Amino acid sequence: MRSAWWLRSGYACALSTAAVFSAFEASAQAFPTKPVRIIVGNGPGTSPDVQIRLVAERLPAEWKQQVLIENLAGASSNIAAERVANATPDGYTLFYASIGPLTINMHLFSKLNYDIVRDFAFVTQFSKLANVLAVHPSVPAKTARELIDLAKRRPGDLRYGSGGNGTSQHLSAELFRSMTGVQYLHVPYKSSPQMTMDLMGGQLDLAFHQPVVVMPLVLSGRLRALAVTSDNRQAWAPTLPTVAESGLPGFEITVGSGLLAPRKTPADIVEKLNADLQRILLTPALKEAYARNYMEVTARGTRDFAAWQKSESEKMGALVRASGAKLD
Predict the structure, then answer these.
(1) Are 263 and 106 in contact (CB under 8 A)?
(2) What rounded mean pLDDT belongs to the chain?
(3) What CA–CA distance (Å, rounded) separates 249 from 147?
(4) Which residues sit opposite 70 in a β-bridge?
(5) How many helices (H) and strands (E) does the chain have?
(6) Where are the alpha helices (DSSP H) in 97-223?
(7) Sheet of strand 159-162, all strands in order from the earlier edge strand to the far edge
(8) CA atoms of 273 and 107, how far apart (whole Å)
(9) Residues 122, 106, 290, 272, Cα dihedral to 10°
């Protein structure tokens, strides 16, 4: 009798376990059954906002459900990150994260109400975006190499601008300084538009700036582009060399962004999200749309995205510490 009881009990457990796995599988297959909300920690029209919207507008045809984008800008995207970290982990509230919360903020702020690794599941990295090393036309340098030589002849004389301490613009310039030994003056701004105006006006000599802002000004002759900060040339400016090609091998900073879910979101739903998003990201039409907006598709899956985040966080942390930047 006891043997029979254990057999019946084991059989019941097996059935129960099978039922649980079956339910998980069914939930992923059915997902989503209602609208999905994606929180963006940046304002409308910014690069991360454009990136997610180009993909999100294609998702209703895939999912037969609405996809709602909510912009929750402020506090370097920390408000948006905290909102999603505390959301129900069912796949219906997601976070489109830019480089700040992914790799910089944990080094820049002494206290955060979320932990990007502990509180999130990495779904898919969408893209990488190169900054452009641009100078005012009055600067007598036509290449990054010439700019380095100029800065060494005039230590502390050149002024570069950024959209604030700890931004990718600032850290690109900090990496440039650390690899070349040049000395120049950092002028941080509260907003990139004002910095751009001063760069065009000649109050600044140079900046590592976003291509969507810089390239139209380069084409109109109001700025001069010297190089891109990525490790490869970009389709939107194939003749523009990388900083690495210009005499600094190993130089590379790109702005990576991607989709995250609350940490306890079922693994099968995370995998379904990843598969559906990669299918869209790898289409020629989406790649072309990204290229028109000065972005490059990466389409890293969950493991590769997490590995990239770890590596980039270590690099950005070293740059933040070297710069002495802090935000609280």
Answers:
(1) no
(2) 92
(3) 16
(4) 39
(5) 13, 11
(6) 99, 105-108, 144-153, 168-180, 192-201, 211-219
(7) 185-188, 159-162, 206-209, 132-135, 224-228
(8) 29
(9) 10
Paired sense of beta strands 159-162 and 206-209, if any: parallel
User: What angle, 0 to 180 degrees and rounded to 10, lies between the N-to-C axes of helices 144-153 and 168-180?
Assistant: 70
Here the tokens at position 293 are 């907006």
The length of the chain is 328
Q: How confident is the model at residue 42 (pLDDT cuts 50, 70, 90)?
A: very high
Question: How many Cα atoms are found within 13 Å in the side-chain-facing hemisphere of 261?
Answer: 22
Measured CA to CA, the distance from residue 328 to residue 323 in angstroms comes to: 16
Domains plus CATH for the chain? 28-129+254-323 (3.40.190.150), 132-228 (3.40.190.10)
3-12 pLDDT, tens digit per residue, is 454 445 555 5
**Would you say the C-alpha torsion 213, 222, 142, 233 has a positive or negative sign?**
positive
Supply 70's token pair.
Answer: 């909510």
Q: Residue range 93-107: average pLDDT?
A: 97
From the list 93, 37, 42, 95, the residue with the least C-alpha distance to 68 is: 37
Dihedral of the alpha carbons of 279, 281, 285, 288, in degrees to the nearest 10: -160
Print the SS3 string covering 205-224: CEEEECHHHHHHHHHCCCCE
pLDDT at 25 exceeding the cut of 80: no
Count of other CB atoms within 10 angstroms of residue 86: 13
| Phi and psi angles of residue 254, each rounded to the nearest 5 degrees, phi first | -130, 155
On whether the CB atoms of residues 195 and 162 are closer than 8 A, the answer is: yes
Looking at the predicted structure, is the pLDDT value of residue 37 above 70?
A: yes
**Mean of pLDDT values over 43-62:** 95
Question: What are the structure tokens assigned to 261, written together?
Answer: 């879910």
